[in-house]
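so the lab meeting is tmrw and i was supposed to have these ready like two days ago... anyway. pasting both below. for each one the top line is the aa sequence and the line under it is the structure tokens. i havent really looked at them closely yet so no promises
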Amino acid sequence: MRSSTSNSDMTRWLGIGLVALAIWAVGATVYERQLRNVGHRPSVIDTPQLWAQERSRIYGDQTMVFIGASRTLYGIDLATVKVVMPHTRPLMLAMDGRYPLATLKALAGDPEFNGTLVVDLDAQGLSSHHWDDQAIYNRYFEDEWTLSWSLHRWLLSLFQRYWTLLNPRLGWLPMSKSWLRMAPPPFVAHDAISTRREGYLDFDRVDEAGLAQMFRADLASELQKHPPPPADDWLKTLSPVSDWVRRIEARGGKVIFFVPPVSGYQAALIEAAYPRPFYWQRFIDHYQLHGWHYLDDDELLDVILLPDDSHVDGSQKDAYTRRLLSNLQREGLL
């Protein structure tokens, strides 16, 4: 009699659980559809865990690792790299809004890394106050990254890839505040990230001129806060960077620096602050490094458009990546 009662209770609770699951699934589906109807779309959320997952895959002499900031994160098409250079294994470690010298330093200190490192870095990013921009991610990888975190991140990415509602800023709480008029509606993003940390920008979803003005103001503020040091002093501080490069090269690796394209006021501001002949080019020549600058391609900005004066639209990622690789190959850097 007791066994029969236990089975009955188990069946009842199982039924309740299935009904609850069905209600949740219906609610989640309706909410997902509502989010998509107002323009939101799925995107993997970039976190230190997602970065560390890619960081753990950099080993082997066939890897080509891209580091830098947003212009590389959203500009380089990894599938195109694989097509153009089929024997390579491209990986993305660039970060939005963070210059990459901390990652260069960390990879120099990793005796197992001997691949090709493609470094998106202009003269401003070489200045010493930017050296630690990516340090927090590298410390996370060294001190906290584990196999269990890797599994957690893999599963999370799998679901975020398909479900818009898994974006924290589009969760029930922030949306409820919006419905109750306690907060404005979440903005419709023009960017998305893949499970491989490859970014995509859709400028049809945003005010291009407004973004260009914002980036111009941010750059002007940054240059006012951190004025360019005298060229000689700036160059002397970069000796450790050269040492990091030599350590990678001594293991059979290769480091290539490049400056991605900018246009409009941003190009004018950065060139006035850090004239190429006295800063970036002098860094490359003085320390005998491999380097390429977008101004070396006279027709680049006629072919590749930068809607916000800084970034490539997702529709041109393939063309931009092919042109960049072609320039690097033509110069004998790849």
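ok protien two:
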Amino acid sequence: MKKLILSIIILSIILVACNNEKGNKLPTDAINISATADSSNQTNQANPAIIFEDDKHNFGIIKEGDFAEYSFKFNNTGDGDLLIANAAASCGCTVPEYPKGIIKPGEHGFIKVKFDSKGKVGMFEKTITITCNTEVRETVLTIGGEVVE
């Protein structure tokens, strides 16, 4: 029964994602997999857990106009399937890329962050908020450094 419910949820998520205007994120309410489970069986519910090797990265000094990239590695240390619904940056100069599929327990993945330093001379610190189906729904990653002319 759980497999049937999970299959229906995954199919619904795929259909919703295909109709999403931006096409690059899932609605955050779609990741609440445990909400559709039988409440009497909550103790047996499998739970994903996302653990990042680092949640901060300092690029150091970079030249204005350059693009700086970094990949934050994470692991699903839980016992349920991990689904990342969204990765949102605090600024348009920072673009995150994240895996769109399911990350099985024990598997790892990367959140790739690309920072455009054009017109950003000086110190900077940007955040990327990761939304997923873990107990704590949001995780914040941080990049920083200094842009010189």
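from a quick look at the 2nd one: The helical segments are 2-19. The chain has one helix and nine strands. will dig more after coffe
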